[in-house]
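Two proteins were folded this term; both appear here.
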Amino acid sequence: MRILPAAFAVLVLAGCQAEVPGRASGDGFVVKDGTRLRFRPVLGELPPGPAAGAPGERQSTNPVAQEAAARALDCGRDAPDTLDGRDDPALPLVSCDALTGARYVLGPGFLSGADVGWVEARLDPATGSSVVNLGLTAAGARTWAEWTGRNVGNQVAMVVRSRVLTAPQIQAAITDGATQISGRFTLPEAEQLARDITGA
């Protein structure tokens, strides 16, 4: 399966200095249900396009079955999701981003919403760009530091109810749990992403 760069979604994850992990942010959101959000590694990505083939097993461990399921997945904005949050986080997942139509093969989840202390959207004063900041709990920060240290250059998907919200690329090891998502989006789009991540 060809790995393609994200065309529209958030492109970068990088450590941010402004916040302390685990501390509530005055303008931010707190994750309402820690079981909704999952962080999963991106194993492969297919470009947007019409669904092709019979629906496949979206949680198969077989790479051939995963690719077939990805090609057959209807990623339209109004397309129903048969899993709708009932995916097993211990298994791979074929999913898509309903906004971009990109299809993903994802590895098992390694962080959940319970590991996220707060999320906020804001303008980065250094660049003038809109960003989403996340602060992880102490346990989440340790897992995140280890995972990002091993996966610089790779993508990670944030998944809610079996759907990909964003799949940014890791730019550096993030050792303090304070994480910044940046990309080509407006402040209202960043605020919506923050709300979607937290379930606000």
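Next, the second protein.
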Amino acid sequence: MPSPSALLLQLFRLQEEERARVGRALHNQVGQALSAIRMGAHLVQSEDDADLRAEDLHEIIRASDETVAILRDLHARLHPPQLDAIGLDAALRAEVERHFAPGTLSVSLPPLPRAPQADLALVAFRIGQALLRQAATRADGGAQVTLTDDDDAFVLSAHHIPGDLPDAALWRALASAAGGRLDDEGGSHWRLRLPYGPAPATSPDPA
């Protein structure tokens, strides 16, 4: 297991990589789309032909819809709204929809009988994100993801994940810090078990 300082540096690197991805998307996608919308608006102002004006307006609406979709995707990547509003299962299903075409991934993500504590749900989601990104590298889409209840804990399992899970030591350390564990079962099978909430403090024995 890497040292705590090495894990902190690894976490910092991951955060910076995510910031860089978001920054590139804002500059390359959102920035270009807004420039196209602005240019289209100027064209509409100077357009006398009603049919061409309607066509330019249609293009502005299309570009606006695409830009809104990009911004929603970036927001979901930074912090999934379903995690707060609906729950972990819905957030994971939305992540599956982002990475996989319908029917290409076997999933069983039913609602849990109770909501995990917010920070524990976020830990599960981030580890689930990493597992789904790795599952997406499998060409035939044959991976399986399940979410189940286990009395005082919940379990996220991912099967038939190709290759090594990037930053696995960091994800294991994060699961352990949250009071759970992430186990590699046979190289391509991963099992994350986390408590619904922090373990209750143990009362000292009476004197």
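Helices lie at 4-46, 50-78, 81-85, 88-99, 118-135, 168-177. The longest strand covers residues 144-150. These notes refer to the second protein only.
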